[in-house]
Protein 1
Amino acid sequence: MVRIALGQVTPVWEDPIATLQKVEPFIAEAAAKGATIICFPEQFATGWDPGSSSNAQPLDGDIFHALSGYAKQYNIAVLGSLRLPGEGKLFNTCVVAGQDGTLLASYRKIHLFSPLKEGANYHHGDNIVTFQLGGMTFGIAICYDLRFSPLFRVYATAGVECILVPSAWPASRMDAWELFIRTRAIENQIFVAGINTVGITPVDWYSGNSIVAGPSGTIISRAREAEGITCADLDPMAIKEARQAMHVEEDRKTGLYHDMARAVKKK
């Protein structure tokens, strides 16, 4: 059993120092409740803004340094995200500091949010990332990635048992938020945890509702619309039981799907 904590926070806009100070009590509370990892929303330290290049930092910058320090101090892994400098553009990047403060994982958002032209300021990533905690295998996706099922399929094929999805998902599309999280969980028979922003920013209004869906698609943990942490216990046996009850993986026709797709392209 692995306990994860979802930390809903309203960012102090474009002020990472103030936001990082603000979340320390969240981290302390999660550790006191026995969580192995606490996860924060997309670009939580600055607020998500696809048009901003401010406060971009390397992986050894102040944001990760603060997360690393909290991880060591409270003996809990910490997931956050930042704007990582690249050649000409940035990368929307999620990082995990392990319980010893070292960099455990770094994931670059693959699907950039075209309706708000995120690609104008950001490069897309091109690799999945996995890491181990408490005997479970985790993966990372970011917000808009939720709409693209092939990414989650790749993670499941790689043996990932839980995908963590830090997000800035607006209040106007919350029905889709829950639908995607539950669908990605049930179609791959894994855990999916969505960690969402809360509050009003210059970009949009966010209503939190961070949720964890289990391998049968049921919601096992749900946050409200306020700042705070919500915990969920992940039992790897639930994955085994779901797959024994419904043999989706055995019935999948991956090779046939590829053949049909190639045939369509030739027409």
Protein 2
Amino acid sequence: MNRSDFYYDLPKELIAQHPAEPRDHSRLMIVERQTGKTAHKHFYDIVDELNEGDCLILNNTRVLPARLFAVKEETNANVEFLLLNNKGDDIWETITGPGKRAKKGTKFTFSNGLLKCEIIDVLENGNRLAKFSYEGNFFNILDRIGQMPLPPYITEKLDNGERYQTVYSKELGSAAAPTAGLHFTNELLEKIKAKGVKIGYVTLHVGLGTFRPVKADDITEHHMHSEHYWLPKETAELINETKKNNKRVIAVGTTSCRTLESVGTFKGKIEESEGWTDIFIYPGYEFKCIDGLITNFHLPESTLIMLVSAFCGYENTMNFYKTAVEEKYRFFSFGDAAFIR
């Protein structure tokens, strides 16, 4: 299939700039995988769509306040840093801008010396490896001086950084939020549990590659970014028990989906697992684990709409996206959701 097959026309005003208030008052489109039939509800209605014995799998990653502003020690020139991957030993892969100010050996200071770093390498992709020095706890310092790395299509300021975190976020490490989970409140999760629906957690640290456009015309030539994941033993056991009872495993978001399908594909079964995945799911892929998917509405020609098309069927997907535009659903990270079942 070609990249252009996944294009749809999206009016700019449908790109959500702010999250719904309260979280679970966003809209929810119900999509039937087999028929493509749709229905329109609100996210708090998800309780009615779940059955006793089903399990929801949530990604409990937490977004780092990874956007930092530094001055170059030699010249006092301003440089922006975006932390991508923790390489250990206080070394991080970063994006710097402007990059020409961050050559190997250059030193930078953040917040009057609260944090410092030196560029120790320039990678082939233009990213930098920076070694940081500080006193105290690195993540506490990030909380004090860092900003949320909102996606480029969100141009308005976010007053409360917690609105770009899920209420169950726990494991620090993402450069972007697993946005399908932003719709859940603690109260809604309690209602879901009270119905007899089990909840399990995985961790996949979302990289900025999630926003990287597909440039190859033939989508099979696209190279996926790699992200770190962890599927705990208790979650694997919950999934296997759910399957044994002929109930549904429902992934909340494409990140949870990619974690489960990575383990199912590369291990041949669902079991405790940790590693890196660059799985690329597009039409023709045979799903190994999930029976349902809760997901936001994704960018045209993105790997994420391709994943949804693999699960729901290409024609069904493009049709319900067309419906979402016509019905003025809100799109992307702070937008509305779909439950594909």
